[in-house]
Amino acid sequence: LKGLDEMHQKIQLEAMALSLGVGLVVGLAYSNLDVTNIIAFDAEISHLVILMGLTYGAGVIAGLRRFR
Question: In whole angstroms, what is the distance from residue 36 CA to residue 29 CA?
């Protein structure tokens, strides 16, 4: 991140913060749904990793569109 200019640093940090927030909230809810057997399948960490990756990508794209 230190090698990027200020705008790209801001975009990356905001996308990472968004991904962490979504991952934390959805991950806790997903785990609780699995524990209480509301969902019929087991909660897998890979689902959460995919969600966080997609959220990060969307955050970067949204940031680039917003600042350009």
Answer: 11
Task: Evaluate whether 42 touches 34 at the Cβ level (below 8 Å).
Answer: yes
**pTM of this structure:** 0.88
Cα 24 to Cα 1, 3, 5, 64, 65: the distances in Å are 23, 28, 28, 24, 25
Band of the pLDDT at 27, cuts 50, 70, 90? very high
Q: How far apart are CA 5 and CA 34, in angstroms?
A: 42
Q: Which residue in the block uniquely carries the two structure tokens 């969600």?
A: 51
CB 34, CB 1: distance < 8 Å: no
Tell me the C-alpha distance between 44 and 2, whole Å: 34
Task: Enter the tokens of residue 39.
Answer: 């969902």
